């Protein structure tokens, strides 16, 4: 069973995919949003090509756990995606994933331009990895 991890942004969306056993997460791509029709076509194609059975979308909560306007936009996107794909779409706390992604990319000695181009994918990997780990450890709380 493959799971798609998503780091949702207003203009760019990072994607990661699990292996068939649901143990590891690998970066897939960054997608620049277009319009609802093109976005739906893209996500349907990804789900079909990779045999996706579940989708995890990072939920950007504030540090105190409250939800702001970003979280509301993310919820709307997740709801839309669930309707488009007819698959379960779960929200997953993504606090600090962008910071973690930047730390990882800086440690790899990548320049700012290179970091920016894959930051969303690495964030999606972190989101999906933490979700997969929670499934293994039984701490499956979003």
Short structural summary:
It is built from 4 helices and 5 strands; from the N terminus they run E-E-E-H-E-H-E-H-H. The protein has helices at residues 36-50, 69-85, 97-107, 112-137, and strands at 2-7, 12-18, 25-32, 52-59, 89-93. It has a 5-stranded mixed β-sheet with strand order 3-2-1-4-5, with helices on both faces.
The CATH architecture would be 2-Layer Sandwich
User: Strand arrangement, largest sheet?
Assistant: 3-2-1-4-5
**CATH level-3 fold name:** Nucleotidyltransferase, domain 5
Poorly predicted residue ranges? none
Rg, rounded, reads 14 Å
Q: Could you estimate the helical fraction of the residues in percent?
A: 40-55%
Q: So what's the CATH class?
A: Alpha Beta
First-residue to last-residue Cα separation: 20 Å
Average pLDDT figure: 87
Task: Estimate nothing, just give the exact number of structural domains.
Answer: 1
Helix vs. strand class:
alpha/beta
The backbone outline, from C-alpha atoms, is globular
Strand content: 15-25%
Encode the helix/strand succession as letters: EEEHEHEHH
Biggest sheet statistics: 5 strands, mixed
